[in-house]
Amino acid sequence: MDAKPKAAGKSSIGHIDLDLALDNIMVGPRATYLDLGCGAGNYTLALARRLGAGSLVYALDLWEDGIIALAETAREEGLGNIEPKVADLSQPLDLETGSVDAAFMATVLHDLPEAARPGLMGELSRVLVPGGVFALIEFKKFAHGPGPSSPDKRIGPEDADRLTAPHGFVRDGTVDLGEFTYLARFIRK
């Protein structure tokens, strides 16, 4: 993978109902969370601010400049509950088995090479506790608006089902986050 991911520096946070998204990601105030493909950490920071002390948010991204910016913002805001790490999501995650209560990926999966997606889902299944939550935020399968220009490059809820099911995930809901985005919430069996 390239050192600077395709959409480095972009964020979909302005295209979603953030409160609704966080409500579907959160499993408790003293839980451990994982933001996959965090970029400069817009979602990470929003979640960490809401959770406060006693929680932990791992924030992983290949984009080193984004991780540095996230670490600086977290330090400036006194958010000691964020642990940013440079990580290639196409490789095994440097996290202990069963160490995460909830994970999320916000408009990143469509940019990950298709060949790397099953491996990431396997790793996600490994690091999540049984009963843990995986929330996938993606662009709706439109040929317009933000996100990939072709609907074929977008990942709809049924596409996500096919990708996650072999790794022990069951979708327990889909939420409309706005005109262009949705959140599919999965539970790890």
From TrEMBL:
InterPro entries: Methyltransf_25, SAM-dependent_MTases_sf. The keyword Transferase applies. Keywords: Methyltransferase, Transferase. Residues 34-132 form the Methyltransferase domain. GO terms for molecular function: methyltransferase activity. CDD domains: AdoMet_MTases (cd02440). One of its GO terms (biological process) is methylation. This is Methyltransferase type 11. It comes from Pseudodesulfovibrio mercurii.
